[in-house]
Specification:
single chain, 293 residues, alpha/beta, seven-stranded mixed sheet, six-stranded mixed sheet, 23% strand, elongated
Length: 293
Amino acid sequence: MNLIKKNRFLQKITQSFFVVTMMTALAVFTSHSNAQNRLSIAEVKGGLHMITGPGGNIGVRITSEGVILIDDKFPQDFDEIQSLVASVSDLPVRYVINTHHHGDHSGSNAGFLPIAEVIAHKNARENMIRGNQDGLPRIVYSGETSVFLGGVEVQVYHLGRGHTNGDSVVYFPDLKTVHGGDLLHGTAPFIDYGNGGSSHGWVGTMNNILAIDFDTAIPGHGAVMNRRDVLNFRNQMEAVRERMTSLIRNGLESDDAPDEIIDEGLSWTQAENGLFMQRSIPGFYEEISAEID
């Protein structure tokens, strides 16, 4: 290879390497930027924000002595949660309250435990232990508890079975707002029968929630609700139970339940709400069948 050709060859190699390097750097930067912008935060009411994005909705209660979080999404979200909290408060997170054990609501517990206390219902902690989850809460309760911080009271209640056997409902009495975790869902609920969930218990738990003096509700997933939305959620749970009961009494077989339960008047049973259909129907069929027997 003569000198001119050799120089041209080296030039092309250098240019190619530069292009590949720049493309790789851009890809890494884009990936990093996307990873750092999974979540967003918005005000619900004065002193209360909600962090949304993949995983469960986080409640952010700001006080003069620190921040109380309701749920904390996935493990990889810890840093971004901290960054978003810092955008609305100069004070640290002091408490995290888990509404239940699922990893999209309690996944950052391990990150928060060195700097804050994590609180959950005793059944939620037991579910975490059984599932070999990290970040076990150091504080548990059975019926109800409260956190007092900076002149703010945050009340926590176990109002019965529903999504799981360890669901917590968090109430901000000064704001007339509840955070229901996955007891409230913007699309369709999942009944976790493997961890004590129950459609029958869920109706009773919803009635207990509706007995609280609130006008605003943060669901586990989806947009902020008002009281009418929560009532409609309870009503659809009852209606879906009634439909399954009727179908079983008319000879429905379990294999046919996912198709036969579909009703155009019940949004939860529609195909696009596959979470309810695919994951809850087998246990739901068994639960209703046992009630009929």
